[in-house]
Amino acid sequence: MQNSADSGAAFPGVVLAGGRSSRMGRNKALLQFGPESLVLRATRRLTPQVTSVAINANDRTAELEALGLAMFGDLDDSRSGPLGGILASLRYASLAAWPASHVVTVAIDSPFFPADLVARLSTAIDRPDRIAVAASSGGLHPVFGLWPRSLADDLERWLSGGQSLRLRDWLARHGANEVHFPDHDTRLGRLDPFFNINTRADLAAAQHWLGAIDP
Ligand SMILES: Nc1nc2c(ncn2[C@@H]2O[C@H](COP(=O)(O)OP(=O)(O)OP(=O)(O)O)[C@@H](O)[C@H]2O)c(=O)[nH]1
Ligand SMILES: [Mg+2]
Predict the structure, then answer these.
(1) Residues 6 or more apart from 1 whose CB is under 8 A from it?
(2) DSSP letter string over 115-168?
(3) Residue numbers of the domain that contains 159
(4) Which residue minimizes the CA distance to atom 1 of ligand 1?
């Protein structure tokens, strides 16, 4: 999906939907959330912020394919966590001939992520190999980051060499600039913009917040 050239966006983006959704028990990408699925919601929130959007998914069911979004899987079936999705995104950037120095990623399961996520992460990029990641009152949210394409080979070596699959461990190797995002003000009180849906109880809570926040 392409964005208009005059949007001011500088980087392409990927919705990471390649996890197992084991705590939910069914693919989170296709969960209904308000009027749409989580994958459509994430795509709709990300599209105005980026030059192009694609979906990183490993369970590519007919229902997911029917959405007609650009889609790619991880490089192998090791399910190495979000780092595997970030690596696949950096490789996809080359395949898709995305011209930018960085790719932004967002998680499939944080439906309230900020409308100015990419604009604010961009301000923390002071050189082509800088990583920028999001933080909030709830802590660091490194799945929400701007990733330099120049680090793709390093990440591939890291993963194929059997190093830690923890995103924070690979981040510590390179350092990252953290960008703090404030809570949303809602009719029910303050909401962390990176509120994360992992379980059915989280989904119920998020649906409650949805009714209290402007779309
Ligand atoms: N490409 C890719 N993305 C992943 C992988 N594991 C997690 N993610 C993504 O990383 C983000 C955070 O995932 P989690 O909520 O920690 O994990 P999950 O697999 O979705 O759910 P659980 O199985 O319940 O832990 C989501 O956007 C996931 O889709 C993976 O192996 N590959
Ligand atoms: Mg999660």
Answers:
(1) 43, 47, 52, 53, 54, 69, 70
(2) TTHHHHHHTT--STT--EEEEETTEEEEEEEEEEGGGHHHHHHHHHTT----HH
(3) 9-210
(4) 85
Q: Is 74 annotated as a binding residue?
A: yes
3 lies in some domain: no
Tell me whether residue 83 is annotated as binding: no
Cα–ligand 1 centroid distance for 87 (angstroms): 14
Q: What is the CATH classification number for the domain harbouring 23? A: 3.90.550.10
* 118-133 pLDDT per residue, tens: 999 999 999 999 999 9
Tell me whether residue 196 is annotated as binding. no
Atom of ligand 1 at shortest range from CA of 17: 29
CA of 191 from ligand 1 middle (Å) equals: 22
> Is residue 4, in this structure, part of any structural domain at all?
no
- Per-residue pLDDT for 73 more than 70? yes
Whether pTM > 0.90 for this model: the answer is yes
- Which of the 8 DSSP states describes residue 2? B
Going along the chain, which residue ranges are E strands? 13-17, 32-33, 36-37, 53-57, 71-72, 102-107, 132-136, 139-148, 177-180, 184-186, 189-191
In this structure, which residue's CA is closest to atom 14 in ligand 1?
Answer: 19
Give distance in angstroms: CA of 5 to centre of ligand 1: 31
